[in-house]
Task: inverse folding
């Protein structure tokens, strides 16, 4: 009985997770097939757009590597004994491998964080430091994502630029990044600002959920702010800029995918569609929001006036560089990491020396 109970505890949760993933994929399969049905039309796109999108996504990933470097550098200073230096190659490999895992393993971002943390720990970094740094990075990037809809509302109300100036969306991403950096620095340096925001959110939530009060919401928001501030202390400018760049380069890749198709749409509406799609990616029904993000983004693009065929092709093009391409890159990074550790393993090196 104990053996059976242990098997149920070990595999029961995984079986349920796989079942939920399977059901989710079954639900979104028709929409996913519609998106991939646009595959032959990729040949109609000017070839130089593909390296442009790849470059924008690489910049988005590089911003995450910079954010991780800042968090790990800040937190390893007082460790005794001091951990080995953490190079950019290790940081990039860990993030790429974790990102790939989040897209193929049920659990999404949580599974990716486990893989990323494991590689950093294997590189000699203390477990508590890694856990604290990854938590701060998650809070920072999620905070930027939650901030985007608020910043988009004024643009939606104002109306311009015209729909034929989607290229302006690349400038919008730069403007938004500057605003995000300013608000991020304000939140990290002025706690009273966070308290006021938390109280306002708490009052709004209290209308529909009485257990949430202005004070409790403010206290929770301040606690998260303090964790982020401590993780990036002394590097607040860099952290705010890296978090903003991560989201804005990714948004710029979506804009570039639509510009490549000569789509006419307002940048602010495309930004709102992007934010909703990124929120769908956080729902751990399918790995990385597979299917849900594709179907949701395509539907939202149609909703803002993009032609159905262009919406499907634009979604496919964007997801190719933001979702599918990083998977083999991450697997190659992980494999390279394993080979490097095997070759440089001290015990193996010592055995070879003894044989000689």
Result:
């Amino acid at each position: 009985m104990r053996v059976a109970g242990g098997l149920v505890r070990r595999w029961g949760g995984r079986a349920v997770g796989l079942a939920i993933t399977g059901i989710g994929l079954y639900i979104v399969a028709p929409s996913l097939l519609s998106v991939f049905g646009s595959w032959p039309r990729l040949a109609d796109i000017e070839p130089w757009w593909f390296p442009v999108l790849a470059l924008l996504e690489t910049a988005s990933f590089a911003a995450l590597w910079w954010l991780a470097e800042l968090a790990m550098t800040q937190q390893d200073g007082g460790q005794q004994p001091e951990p080995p230096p953490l190079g950019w190659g290790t940081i990039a490999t860990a993030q790429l491998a974790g990102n790939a895992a989040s897209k193929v393993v049920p659990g999404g971002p949580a599974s990716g964080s486990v893989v990323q943390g494991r590689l950093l720990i294997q590189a000699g970094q203390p477990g508590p430091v890694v856990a604290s740094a990854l938590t701060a990075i998650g809070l920072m990037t999620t905070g930027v994502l939650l901030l985007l809809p608020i910043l988009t509302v004024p643009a939606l109300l104002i109306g311009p630029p015209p729909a034929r100036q989607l290229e302006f969306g690349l400038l919008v991403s730069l403007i938004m990044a500057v605003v995000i950096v300013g608000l991020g620095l304000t939140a990290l340096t002025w706690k009273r600002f966070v308290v006021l925001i938390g109280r306002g959110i708490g009052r709004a939530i209290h209308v529909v959920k009485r257990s949430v009060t202005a004070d409790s919401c403010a206290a929770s928001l301040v606690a998260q702010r303090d964790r982020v501030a401590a993780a990036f202390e002394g590097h607040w400018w860099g952290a705010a800029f890296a978090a903003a760049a991560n989201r804005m380069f990714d948004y710029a890749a979506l804009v570039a995918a639509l510009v490549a198709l000569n789509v006419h749409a307002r940048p602010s509406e495309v930004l709102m569609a992007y934010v909703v799609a990124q929120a769908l990616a956080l729902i751990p029904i399918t790995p990385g929001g597979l299917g849900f993000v594709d179907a949701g983004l395509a539907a939202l693009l149609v909703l803002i006036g993009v032609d159905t065929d262009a919406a499907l092709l634009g979604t496919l093009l964007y997801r190719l560089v933001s979702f599918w391409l990083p998977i083999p890159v991450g697997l190659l990074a992980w494999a390279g990491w394993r080979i490097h550790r095997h070759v440089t393993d001290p015990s193996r090196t010592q055995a070879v020396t003894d044989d000689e």
